[in-house]
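Forum > Structural Biology > Help requests

Title: Can anyone predict the 3D structure of Rhodanese-like domain-containing protein?

Hi all, first post here. I have the sequence for Rhodanese-like domain-containing protein but no way to get a structure on my laptop. I'd be grateful if someone could post the structure tokens.
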Amino acid sequence: MKTVITTLGLVLTVLFGLTACSSAAPASLAADTVVIDVRTPGEYAAGHLEGAINIDVQSPDFDGQIGALPKSGAYVVYCRSGNRSAAAAARMAGLGYSQVTDAGAMSAATGSTGLAIVTTP
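Reply #1:
Sure, ran it for you. Structure tokens for Rhodanese-like domain-containing protein below:
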């Protein structure tokens, strides 16, 4: 009886473990999605998501730089902790951008986008 319970426990652990791993697979981005790092240029240079562009939400020219992007595009914004990306997403929505996803902190964004963290050469 003890062997049956131990075996059952092992089987359940393996099954639930595999399910948890497969559900953690990163999401794919559409090919035309623009990823925007809204941190400072220094933070961006120290490490950013591969392919991301840098538009500092605290820059006085943020609205102008964002305004150069097509309003019909799809965008993902992220920062260090999620505060600045939330502010950037709200400002973009206020400017008429309807397809903006706030990925929050870079650590969360790398998981949700599947993009690696790289540094500027």
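The beta strands are 34-37, 48-49, 53-54, 75-79, 100-105, 117-118. The longest strand covers residues 100-105.
Shout if anything looks off.
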